[in-house]
PaaI family thioesterase (Sphingomonas oryzagri), 152 residues
Amino acid sequence: MTDAPSAGERAHFDALQSLYAAAPINRLFASRLEVIESGLARIHFEVDERVFHAAGAAHGTIYFKMLDDAAFYAANTLVSDRFLLTTAFNLLLTRPVKVGPLIAEGRWVSGRRRVLVADSRLIDAEGEEVARGTGTFMRSHIPLSSLPGYRG
């Protein structure tokens, strides 16, 4: 078990959660970010028929969004001054998803200076992994403090 986050880290984590909640895309994909600790984030999402493709399971858009968001925020827990940008993301989709809750768990893997790497996995209600992803994220020129949703 890791040490509890410092007050500064906790403020950054809370501000990242606020930033996530404020993102306009989340009006389309209702979900919730939970920053656990430095390098670890979870996205909670409920799948329903509105996100199904023609064959009656969740569209790949959901897999990508959840996995990218979880990995992105896991990486951005380590960067408190700049917004990160996804520069590449690889997906492995292993099972179809029907109605129910999903959790995407992202973990920072490496890098702290310019480029960060993070993995994520998508878990269904039965605890089965249905997809995984790996992303690379680069520091942008956008200060986190300049973003309306980031309340640090």
